[in-house]
Amino acid sequence: MNPNTSPLKLSIVVVGCGLGGLAAALCLGRAGHRVTVFEAASEATEIGVGIQVPPNVSRLLREWGLQEELEKTAVKPRAASWRRYDTGTMVGELDARKLEEKYGVPHYNVHRGELHRIMYNAAKVVANIITNSRVTAVNVGEPEMRQGSRRIQPTVILSDGRQVCADVVVGADGVKSVTRGTVCGDSSSGSKTNSAHRVIVPTSEMIKDSALKELVENTHVTCWMGPGRNIVGYCVSGGTGYNLVLSCPSTDDMEPESWSIPSSPDMIRNDYLGWEPRIQKLIDLIPSSSKWKLVDRPILSTWVHHGGVVLIGDACHPLLPYGAAMAMEDAAVLAALLTNPKTYTDIPHLLDAYADIRKPRCTYIQDVSRKNGAMFHLDDGPGQVARDLALSKLAEGGDNNERQFGYNVHEEVQQWIEKNPL
Ligand SMILES: Cc1cc2nc3c(=O)[nH]c(=O)nc-3n(C[C@H](O)[C@H](O)[C@H](O)COP(=O)(O)OP(=O)(O)OC[C@H]3O[C@@H](n4cnc5c(N)ncnc54)[C@H](O)[C@@H]3O)c2cc1C
């Protein structure tokens, strides 16, 4: 087995150019496959808000040679801290330097657009990325014999009538995936849980106020926890912007088909009445914001069609707030497995391997994120007191996130291949 490139060069179509699709294009292209990405939007960009890059993803970005570029704008938080919503009192803190010592790579806070640009620039060297190209269907053909082995080629149909055949189609087309219909007949887009206002406040305004200046200078990832809602804040873009994700219960002010609506400081103020003074000051500085639907759905049971179609990222598991991290891990695992086919008949086996490796991981992360969501939104009372006590002990005990942050894609793939030789 060659750990870097595939002995059998495949033609691969990736549907969607989000962070998952770009990671797939980058890794599969570097593995020697011919990769084409179709993106529906006219430009390959990401929405302009922040994203947290935990050590399990920093490890991948370092492996892909992108760490140096990332560090030009990413912010390394000094700590994660948890605070009460009404007084702002800190109830727990975790030192990020200890995290870096333990896992060998940092946690970063990044502007999504910047991470997307870095990934795009790296992926376009090894993949053909075509925008303005909406995929309307993925069809699976009849098997044919090729180079002595049985081969089935899926075909991607585009809205302008183009049809493109490939050996493998990777559905990285997000929560409303079209590819999912081919894999498991499910075209639903999940159920709405909470909403989140997403905002970037200029730190040049925050440093004019001593209370807000501290938030900029201490570079913590701060989570304010309150009944039914929470706020996460951190610096991005070399410290020039303070990203805020303000989650609150869903309201019915969004069309079923839309993902976001513009929100306003007044709307946000109304959602956070009684929250500590720094939150009120931050809301006063919000230049513009949008309110996002947060979507949850059970992890799909079928991720793979043996006709050569596979789903990654939100298309098979929307996970809040770790979805991009999981989409990028999915891509890395899929590409590592697809360095192994010797014949076309190996492809379904390797796609099954991908689902076998990734489903337990994503199910675990979904469970963690649901529990965290519920824990951050507790009403004041015995549950909240127990939570705050547990958080107050984090500083001494350190993190217990080995399973979450210590994940190693190549070890997972190697173990699977050893147990299930081709
Ligand atoms: C409020 C909020 C905060 C979050 N914070 C974090 C965080 O801190 N860390 C984290 O890891 N995750 C976070 N997430 C989750 C993360 O945003 C998603 O899980 C992640 O973007 C999924 O990536 P993806 O590539 O699978 O899909 P997407 O990013 O949705 O990309 C899908 C792409 O496919 C394209 N597309 C769709 N349909 C078609 C088609 N038919 N033909 C062609 N192209 C198509 C779309 O235009 C898009 O470019 C957050 C999400 C929310 C809502």
Automatic annotation (TrEMBL):
Residues covered by the FAD-binding domain: 11-364
InterPro entries per record: FAD-bd, FAD-dep_Monooxygenase_BioMet, FAD/NAD-bd_sf
Presence of the UniProt keyword DNA damage in the record: no
SUPFAM superfamilies from the UniProt entry: FAD-linked reductases, C-terminal domain (SSF54373), FAD/NAD(P)-binding domain (SSF51905)
Signal peptide: none
Name of the protein described by the UniProt record: FAD-binding domain-containing protein
Domain of life: Eukaryota
Family membership noted in the UniProt record: Belongs to the paxM FAD-dependent monooxygenase family.
GO MF terms, alphabetically ordered: FAD binding; monooxygenase activity
Entry keyword set: FAD, Flavoprotein, Monooxygenase, Oxidoreductase
